[in-house]
Design goal:
The complex is a heterodimer. Chain A starts with a strand and ends with a strand. Chain A contains no helices and 11 strands. Chain A is an all-beta fold. Helix content of chain A is 0%, strand content 54%. Chain B starts with a strand and ends with a strand. Chain B is mainly beta. Chain B is 0% helix and 54% strand. In chain B, the strands form 3 sheets. In chain B, strands 2, 5, 6, 10, 11 and 12 form a 6-stranded mixed beta sheet that branches. Classes of the chains: A mainly beta, B mainly beta. The A-B interface holds A 4, 31, 33, 42-43, 45, 48, 50, 55-56, 91, 93, 95, 97, 99-108, 110 and B 32, 34, 36, 41-46, 49, 90, 94, 96-100, 102, 104, 106-107.
Chain lengths: 114, 114
C-alpha cells in the first residue's frame, strides 16, 4: 500500500494568496483527518471526515480555512486568504474505522506564507 | 476528559544505552494509547499501540511500552539506543474506538550521542 499521499510536499506563497493542500487516504479507510503542527502549539486536529462527511470541524481556526472530501479517495484543505501565521506543517491521516482507532499519517505539507 | 503529559521535552542518551521516554495519561474511560515517532521533516509513524490486551506492548525497531493503570503511565523503552532512533516521539491517548479524538502529548525529542 502506498500509504497516505499528500501534495505538495512544500508550498511557499505570499500573504493573501489562496493555498490548496491535497490528500489521498489509504484505500478502504473510512476516516480522514487534517492536522496542523507548529512549534508553539504542537499537533492540532483541524477537521475530520467519516465516509466523506465532515464530523468535527471545531479545530478549524477561522473561516479562511475550509476542507472538502468530494469522494473516498481525495480531500482538500484550502486557506483563502493565507496569512503568515498559517505557516506550519499540515498533516493528513486516515483510519480504517470498523473498531480500529489507529491513524496513519501522510508525510505532510510544509507551508510557508511570506 | 483525556489528557497526556510527556514528562521530558528532551532526552539525550549515548548509543548503546537504554532509552526511557515517559508518558502519563488521564482518561475517564478505557483508553487506547499510542506512541508515534517523527523523524526530521517526515510524517508520524506508528511505533506501537495499547488497547486492552497485554499490558506490555512491543513495537517496531525494538521499542516497547508498558501500560500501568495504577500509575496512569505508558512509558516507552528500548534496551539499546541506535543513532537512527534520534527523532521526536509523541505519546497519544484516545477513548478506545472513538474516532477523531486523538490527544497528543507535546513530544519528546530524543538525541543519541555516538
Amino acid at each position: 500500500d502506498a500509504g497516505v499521499i499528500q501534495s505538495p510536499r512544500h508550498e511557499v506563497t505570499e500573504m493573501g494568496q489562496e493555498v490548496t493542500l491535497r490528500c489521498k487516504p489509504i484505500s478502504g479507510h473510512d476516516y480522514l483527518f487534517w492536522y496542523r503542527q507548529t512549534m508553539m502549539r504542537g499537533l492540532e486536529l483541524l477537521i475530520y471526515f467519516n465516509n466523506n462527511v465532515p464530523i468535527d470541524d471545531s479545530g478549524m481556526p477561522e473561516d479562511r480555512f475550509s476542507a472538502k472530501m468530494p469522494n473516498a479517495s481525495f480531500s482538500t484543505l484550502k486557506i483563502q486568504p493565507s496569512e503568515p501565521r498559517d505557516s506550519a506543517v499540515y498533516f493528513c491521516a486516515s483510519s480504517p474505522g470498523s473498531g480500529s482507532d489507529t491513524q496513519y499519517f501522510g508525510p505532510g505539507t510544509r507551508l510557508t506564507v511570506l | 476528559a483525556q489528557s497526556v503529559t510527556q514528562l521530558d521535552s528532551h532526552v539525550s542518551v549515548s548509543e548503546g544505552t537504554p532509552v526511557l521516554l515517559r508518558c502519563n495519561y488521564s482518561s475517564s474511560y478505557s483508553p487506547s494509547l499510542f506512541w508515534y515517532v517523527q523523524h526530521p521533516n517526515k510524517g508520524l509513524q506508528l511505533l506501537l499501540k495499547y488497547t486492552s490486551a497485554a499490558t506490555l506492548v512491543k513495537g517496531i525497531n525494538g521499542f516497547e511500552a508498558e501500560f500501568k493503570k495504577s500509575e496512569t503511565s505508558f512509558h516507552l523503552t528500548k534496551p539499546s539506543a541506535h543513532m537512527s532512533d534520534a527523532a521526536e516521539y509523541f505519546c497519544v491517548v484516545t477513548v478506545r474506538r472513538s474516532q477523531g479524538n486523538l490527544i497528543f502529548g507535546k513530544g519528546t525529542k530524543l538525541s543519541v550521542k555516538p
